[in-house]
Amino acid sequence: MKKLINKTEDVVTESLAGVAAAHADLVKVFYDPNFVVRADAPVMGKVGVVSGGGSGHEPMHGGFVGMGMLDAACPGDVFTSPTPDQMEAATKAVDGGAGVLHIVKNYTGDIMNFEMAAELCQAEGIDVASVVIDDDVAVQDSLYTAGRRGVGTTVLAEKICGAGAEKRYDLQKVADLCRKVNANGRSMGMALTSCTVPAAGKPTFDIGDDEMEIGIGIHGEPGRERMALKPAKEIVAMMAEAIITDLPFKNGDNVIAMVNGMGGTPLIELYLVYNELEQICQGKGITIARRLVGNYITSLEMAGTSITLVKADGELLELWDAPVHTPGLRWGV
Amino acid sequence: MKKLINKTEDVVTESLAGVAAAHADLVKVFYDPNFVVRADAPVMGKVGVVSGGGSGHEPMHGGFVGMGMLDAACPGDVFTSPTPDQMEAATKAVDGGAGVLHIVKNYTGDIMNFEMAAELCQAEGIDVASVVIDDDVAVQDSLYTAGRRGVGTTVLAEKICGAGAEKRYDLQKVADLCRKVNANGRSMGMALTSCTVPAAGKPTFDIGDDEMEIGIGIHGEPGRERMALKPAKEIVAMMAEAIITDLPFKNGDNVIAMVNGMGGTPLIELYLVYNELEQICQGKGITIARRLVGNYITSLEMAGTSITLVKADGELLELWDAPVHTPGLRWGV
């Protein structure tokens, strides 16, 4: 295992310490239980937006804490759900009296623990709403999931809900917004290589030198098909077809697109993938009105990419364009 | 070779097409010869800032074109110097009557071709100044370089010189600023794995499963020492020691720091590296006043990191903080 780490059991806390040192103007990091909150939390009168999940997907979620996006993030161990006490502490830390939204990716452990934390907080008088993201079109059930997995749409939902909360939407409205983003978002991923969880010390799965996995999950869960490596044009066409026909996205739609790197794929390839996606969308009359190209929801050092499309009306585009200031996403400020 | 590409000979142009499609509000891309210019070029009365080099280091340089940073970038083939006609065309495209600065990384081919382009432009009445960046403390001469290689300080020089140009510093003053950043900047890199140039189809160098290369160049050029993999704390200490003693950086200095990923290293590790660097600097009374943590000057999918420190007075910090709006770096707007 080749990693820039010290002891495997310290990876998450030492990386969080780096985030705290690098971004003290934006975030505060608490330990035991671990969570990251925006430096000015709680913002009184504003809905708090909280997410979390296993570590190893950085910048998601800790890198999205700050003005206009998340109020707090709960990082679990690598590829392991955070515990209810993390979510409870984070929720209390960001409650500004207007309630707190939990944005939960659809993994069994995440769902169960966020539910438990929500109940604990509600028992103490904090209004909590939860929305589950399940946007991955690849497979119906998966290794850690009943139903579809939650993947790239989570990033866009965090940005858009954060913007809604900044505009002082109430809890019901921020939760509805999150459901709207999820209902309009679809994703699919693929991998060229596996990744290695530090505590495991060996690759999560084996894959041949001439093979790729289409429909991979962000923890290396099996996808739709193991097949021979193909040119980018064919790979993107397969993924885009699966995504576009699922919603379906239609001629005349505006979308926010994300071409996401899994962690080990260089930017020169991600822009090449974006070029293919742009051509496919243009051919179908789908306008990419906004986009992200880069590493946003990763799987450690896995090589591969995922594509997310969210059909966006004027409200979603306006909230997308609103200022955001986090370690991982910043504009307008 | 596992890459998200089509034909190897089309990687650079297809990736540039992706940049053009994704960032039409910021940049225009020209082909044959290939160069990227800011969308509003030329900016009349402003010094144009141009850089370039081989592709495969993205986001450098094309991702740094835009307001407050570069006016143009010339991408060569992967790990291959751009040709004089690219630099000549880019220089002409961004000349707003106040002259053009060429920021050149110290590689023999880059130097020679930028010199030729400068002469061609000067013959047509464009005032051109050139500054060479040679900040890599690892080795004195290298595979493609006489003297020290130009690496991470280039990114910081592009940001700071771009800000100076926006403030309408004249050509002499922007060139002096670039020399000041280079004189105060030092870098060193290391690799855990090699990378594969698409046209070559096989790894640039071999490295054992338990080995790392300290002092690596951004094209996989040999560094100071091949040694057994060590904990991050020891790796960062070795690199920081080499950098800090070289300038030397001293108790009381303010620095801009960059912890850069080589392309295949996940962010969770880069923040862990940053945490080690922060502790070392604190221990020596060096204040990291500003920082970047992420992939800024990469070597395709190489796993590894580089550290750059630039000693920064009030002028450099003020220019660092000035607004920038490029595909790869954005704040204040």
The counted number of beta strands of chain A is 14
In whole angstroms, how far apart are the ends of chain A? 40 Å
**For the report, how would you describe the main beta sheet of chain A?**
6 strands, mixed
Could you report the average pLDDT of chain A, rounded to the nearest whole number? Answer: 97
Q: Determine the fraction of residues in helical runs of chain A and give it as a percent range.
A: 25-40%
Number of helices of chain A: 8
What is the CATH homologous superfamily assignment of the largest domain in chain A? Dihydroxyacetone kinase, domain 1
What does this structure look like?
The structure is a homodimer of 333-residue chains. Chain A has helices at residues 11-22, 84-94, 108-123, 153-166, 171-183, 232-246, 267-283, 314-321, and strands at residues 27-30, 35-38, 48-55, 72-78, 100-105, 128-133, 185-191, 211-214, 225-228, 254-261, 287-294, 304-311, 324-325, 330-331. Chain A is of the alpha/beta class. The first copy, chain A, has 2 domains: 16-184, Dihydroxyacetone kinase, domain 1 (Rossmann fold), CATH 3.40.50.10440; 185-322, Dihydroxyacetone kinase, domain 2 (Hypothetical Protein Tm841, Chain: A,domain 3, 2-Layer Sandwich). In chain A, the strands form 3 sheets. Chain A has a 6-stranded mixed beta sheet with strand order 1-2-4-3-5-6, with helices on both faces. A 6-stranded mixed beta sheet of chain A has the order 9-8-7-12-10-11. In chain A, strand 10 (254-261), helix 7 (267-283) and strand 11 form a beta-alpha-beta unit. In chain A, helix 2 crosses helix 3, helix 4 runs antiparallel to helix 5 and helix 6 (232-246) crosses helix 7 (267-283). The longest helix of chain A is centred in the last third of the chain and has 17 residues, at 267-283.
